[in-house]
Design goal:
Elements: E1 2-3, H1 10-13, E2 18-21, H2 25-30, E3 37-38, H3 44-56, H4 59-79, E4 91-94, H5 100-112, E5 117-119, H6 122-135
Parallel strand pairs: 1-5, 2-3, 2-4, 4-5
Amino acid sequence: MAITLNTLTDLAAHGFDEIIDVRAPAEYADDHLPGAISLPVLDDAERARVGTVYKQVAPFAARKLGAALVARNAARHIEDALADKPGGWRPLVHCWRGGQRSGSFALILSQIGWRVETLVGGYKAWRGLVLRELTEV
């Protein structure tokens, strides 16, 4: 399931157990949602590689490569950072625009049985909301 935030306070109102930023480490380092943890499904080099394949080879080839990398990295996160999470755990997962990366990771987590949700529009939507609220002050 995907949620849409209309105000900055909406995030806290949803009461997620954790906010997971699946963007590459450089993206997370640049900025992230308050309290979010970084569990990248593609590292910086993998993200660049998938993007290059997308532009220079074909979108299908890039999606296939990306899926293999995401699955491998998701497995590592499940075995490590998420190993102690209980069955009722409820995370919010997001990437840049709320698309391929967060959706892929969320699907895997939901198949385990966790009550995962994604953020419509991802970090980009959050940033737009912050900018909008700042200019309205």
